[in-house]
Amino acid sequence: MAQFVFEGDLHGLLKLDTPIPNAPPARWQRKAKDSGVPGPSPAAGLSPMKPANRSHSSSKTPSRTPGKPGSKIQSTPTKAGGDRYIPNRSTMQMEMANFLLTKENDPAEESPTKKEQQKAWAVNLNGFDIEEAKILRLSGKPQNAPEGYQNNLKVLYSQKTTPGSSRKNGRYIPSMPDRILDAPEIRNDYYLNLIDWSAQNFLAVALDNSVYLWNHTSGEIIQLLQMEHPDDYVSSVSWIKEGNYLAVGTSNAEVQLWDIQHQKRLRNMISHSSRVGSLSWNSYILSSGARAGHIHHHDVRVAEHHVATLAGHTQEVCGLKWSLDGRYLASGGNDNLVNIWPCTQGDSGDFAPVQTFTQHQGAVKAVAWCPWQSNVLATGGGTSDRHIRIWNVCSGTCLTAVDAHSQVCSILWSTNYKEFISGHGFAQNQLVIWKYPTLAKVTELRGHTARVLNLTMSPDGAIVASAAADETLRLWRCFEMDPIKKKEKEKANSAKSSIIHQGIR
Fold first, then answer.
1. Cα 330 to the chain's mean position, in Å?
2. What is the dihedral of CA 41, 47, 53, 56, to 10 degrees?
3. Tens digits of per-residue pLDDT, 113-124?
4. CA distance 278 to 315
5. Which residues touch 341 (CB under 8 Å, ≥6 apart)?
6. Helix/strand/coil (H, E, C) string of 53-74?
7. Helices (H), 177-333
8. Residue 15 Cα to chain centre, angstroms
9. Distances in Å between the alpha carbon of 201 and those of 19, 213, 218, 417, 459?
10. What is the rounded end-to-end Cα distance, in angstroms, of the chain?
């Protein structure tokens, strides 16, 4: 009980509204005694600190300032407790403070279960948790926010901040095309492949029954060919890797080979029975996919060009692409299948697919091989599927997939960044750049007013050309490298080639 006696003495010393014993008389008492005017005596319980003079207990200042009869009345704050920075002694928890101080000297360790029990008891008995009790408490309490209030500044601290490294790696991607070219009478057919860009910087475009070449360096336009019969049309084009020969597929089941330097047709290869909508080169082997569902291999060096037939689709082959290392051929068809073909025949002498992917629910025209992972393939489905899927062709597993929310017409991998771009149809008719392998959307490129039919990339990998049903070609400078990184890449490539030459010697 010693602490209670101490607290009582402390309150008695701090109490100011009682007369102080054995103290000299105050000035007002001496004045009243000298003038003979009877005044209140201390025994009457009156104090000089009253509203008539001055009071500490009622928080009022003197009504008049001596010597200034017209001064304004001033008042101190009427809120109990005074200044909010001075502890409010009425809210002190002295008993709890003593308990907590003596508790610190207790070496006994308590189990978690016992601590929970003691916390529950303390809340029920005291109305608060003793572990959160405060010896001194400020009189000014913060006001509670009104119901439904949201602090806008909270977003600055609650959102995940972007790492500095990713900010530095961000690049500017123009939202507008670098150039727009007219493409009159381009066929609005999802299953055709009508543009391709050569290593010599020529862009080949099939416009109905004609093929035009556009020199990106000089801007020169060349009409390479025109079909003899007006009802026939060009259904596919594809450049050989070196860029000096162009393969042309037609609606009358022909596969033509053209020499660009001399602008003449070298040969006309006939083996299909229906239009040739897709073409792909693997060295001197030209593969062609037709509406009947068959894929033919042509050896362009020999007279008997038709060397193999791949039968794995029941409907039109609209997507065809050889891997960069020449080991596999990927084919997509209107039967919703994706077949992976080997470059060599099997033991029986026939070609059979090593993998068949059936997850797509629509026609698969968009097929593209990853340039830095030779066994990774990207495919995109048509209107009834709208998904982009990434495959490991060795294990046959789908690595990841994303819903593009629109028809996927074409896919191209970037050679400068770990990204790929996809062209889409209804309803946005946009191009979308995706991050790999997260498949996070980097940006969207809008401008076409009708569905995108095909995409192709410039030799340096910086520009993507898109052909759409709105009869325009748009060139997007979306993968341009930073000049410093470009120099470093060229320097590394030159050093690599010099090492190879030294090894050959």
1. 29
2. 170
3. 777 787 777 777
4. 13
5. 295, 310, 312, 328, 329, 330, 331, 351, 353, 354
6. CCECCCCECCCCECCECCCCCC
7. none
8. 68
9. 107, 10, 10, 21, 7
10. 102
pTM higher than 0.70: no
Tokens for 135, please give them: 């010896």
**Cβ pair 328, 340 in contact under 8 A:** yes
Pairing relation of β-strands 387-392 and 397-403? antiparallel
- How many angstroms separate the CA atoms of 357 and 340, rounded? 9
CA atoms of 215 and 110, how far apart (whole Å): 84
pLDDT given at position 142 = 60
Q: Which residues of the chain have pLDDT under 70?
A: 1-5, 10, 12-23, 36-93, 103-111, 125-170, 346-349, 493-505
* pLDDT at residue 121, rounded to an integer: 78
Strand partners for 311: 294
> H or E stretch including 28?
helix 27-35
The bridge status of strand 387-392 relative to strand 376-381 is antiparallel
Give residue 255's region: left, alpha or beta (phi > 0; psi -120 to 50). Answer: beta
Of 314, 427, 318, nearest to 363 by C-alpha is 318
Tokens of 88: 């409010």
Contact 444, 489 (CB under 8 A): no
Q: Is 131 helix (H, G, I), strand (E, B) or coil?
A: helix
The sheet with strand 387-392 has its strands ordered as 364-369, 376-381, 387-392, 397-403
Q: Which two tokens stand for residue 198?
A: 């050569």
As given in the structure block, the two tokens for residue 134 are: 């405060």
The token pair at 113 is 């279960």
352's tokens: 């059979």
**Tokens in use for 316?**
């039109």
CA distance 260 to 241: 13
Helix (H, G, I), strand (E, B) or coil at 229: coil
Token look-up 């062709």 returns: 393
Element (H, E) at 154: helix 154-158
The CA distances from residue 221 to 181, 218, 335, 472, in Å, are 11, 9, 38, 15
